[in-house]
Design goal:
Blueprint lengths: L3 H9 L5 H12 L8 E4 L1 H9 L11 E5 L27 H8 L3 E6 L35 H8 L5 E5 L6 H7 L2 E4 L20 E5 L2 H12 L14 E5 L9 H16 L3 E5 L7 H4 L4 H18 L5 H8 L6 H22 L4 E5 L18 H20 L3 E6 L9 E6 L4 H15 L2
Helix pairs in contact: 2-3, 10-11
């Protein structure tokens, strides 16, 4: 499956055109692989926009999708819910959607998501759950909360899946579907016109088919130029954090990760195993509920009073945990996080990036975590496992990318490269080199 860069070069060479590529994207969007992927499609508008596009533009009239929590002019922004399905229409596009359109991208639809973005599993009781494209025999979870965005990219229906990442909501579905997901430093991309989960942790970002496409998407969304350089892997010092990140790995993930480390070392990468004792402090720091619970409750409290019965019970349960946080506990949380970030950044200062499994498991079946109180325990167990590794980077205010590291025929496994805030270009540079090495 060609990535955006290769397809754009084909357009410029006259080997195809935006109309043809759009029809291909729409056909895939309407295929069984994209069942439950879209909450709303805009195929008629997309055909018109593609026909009027310029191949010289950065996105050349090619398809992108938008997670259901981003404003699109003239449409409500339900964020995967039922309670906001008839909300007033947004007067303008969110800034992220506007920037992708201005770069020549064509929006084909709004994508399904975990209701209000509050889980890493991707199950939605209102709109159905899109199935992972990696296994046609057993319907598996897509990962969340940017579930539909991930499937739109993995299925070939879109080149960019616009989403958000609060605790892994881009990287989890990217890892489980075998695509690329880049979570930039949060401050680099504007959240204007995006319905929030946690104003402290939310990051506007995207999933793509390749790392070079991730660079392009990030440059457009952040309105900045990435300068990753072209140094080989041997020029970088990489770390593997042994505690927490490598705990309880599913055998398939452990095998893929160890094989990947061996491949990177064989290419000359300098990889050092380290401990981060600071990770043990996170449970105490978040003991009163953490940022997502407190900040989501502040946004949802009146809506919950009016329409709480219409919420996904699993989502409502997590939001309501924020009702009990006291003002001094929130202030203590802010201070504790600031101190924790300083200590972790000091420990990671000698390294250009950290290498970890994105998540410790492959995608479980949808049936095992489908809506229903009898499956709640398993749902929350899986959710905690999926969020464990990527959420640490959000707490760090850092940046991270997930790229595929499994072998052909295996269920997808993600390799996460990460660091603290504003190390985005270095992380992308390592990712470009790692992807080239792993694809050989």
């Amino acid at each position: 499956m060609n990535d955006l860069h290769a397809t754009r070069l084909t357009l410029l060479a006259g080997g195809s055109d935006a109309r043809t590529e759009m029809e291909r994207a729409i056909a895939l969007s309407e295929s069984p692989a994209c069942a439950h992927v879209f909450t709303r499609t805009m195929f008629g508008e997309a055909r018109v926009a593609a026909a009027a596009s310029a191949p010289e533009s950065r996105l050349a009239g090619l398809a992108f999708t938008s997670k259901d929590l981003f404003d699109v002019a003239g449409q409500p922004t339900p964020a995967g819910s039922a309670v906001l399905s008839h909300a007033p229409a947004a007067p303008t596009d969110s800034l992220a959607v506007a920037r992708l359109r201005a770069a020549g991208g064509v929006l084909t639809g709004r994508t399904n998501m975990t209701e209000f973005a509050f889980s890493g599993v991707g199950v939605n009781p209102h709109h159905g759950t899109p199935a992972n494209v990696s296994d046609t025999a057993t319907p598996r979870i897509p990962g969340g909360s940017s579930s539909g965005a991930a499937i739109s990219v993995a299925s070939g229906a879109a080149f960019i899946g616009l989403g958000s990442d609060t605790g892994g909501s881009i990287r989890i579905p990217a890892a489980l579907n075998g695509i690329v997901g880049f979570k930039n430093t949060a401050r680099l991309t504007p959240a204007d016109g995006a319905l929030p989960l946690s104003t402290t942790l939310d990051t506007v970002c995207a999933m793509t088919r390749s790392v070079r496409d991730a660079v392009t998407a990030h440059e457009i969304l952040s309105a900045r130029q990435v300068t990753p350089g072209s140094a080989p892997l041997s020029a970088y010092r990489l770390a593997v954090v042994k505690n927490i990140f490598l705990d309880d790995l599913e055998p398939a993930v452990a095998t893929a990760f160890e094989r990947t480390l061996a491949t990177l070392r064989a290419t000359g990468a300098h990889i050092h195993e380290i401990e981060l004792p600071e990770l043990a402090d996170l449970q105490a720091i978040n003991a009163t509920g953490g940022f997502s619970a407190a900040e989501s409750y502040a946004w949802h409290r009146l809506l919950l009073e009016r329409s709480g019965a219409g919420y996904d019970p699993r989502v409502a349960q997590r939001i309501l945990r924020g009702a009990g946080m006291k003002a001094h506990e929130y202030i203590d949380l802010v201070r504790a996080r600031r101190d924790w970030i300083a200590r972790v950044e000091k420990a990671l200062a000698p390294f250009d990036a950290v290498v970890s499994p994105t998540v410790p498991i492959t995608a479980p079946s949808i049936a095992s975590v489908a809506p229903g109180a009898e499956r709640d325990d398993e749902f929350f167990r899986i959710n905690a496992l999926l969020l464990r590794n990527p959420s640490i980077v959000n707490m760090l205010d850092g940046c991270a990318i997930s790229l595929p590291c499994h072998a052909h025929g295996e269920l997808p496994v993600g390799l996460m490269l990460w660091h603290g805030a504003m190390h985005d270009d270095a992380v992308l540079a390592v990712a470009l080199q790692a992807e080239r090495t792993l694809q050989k």
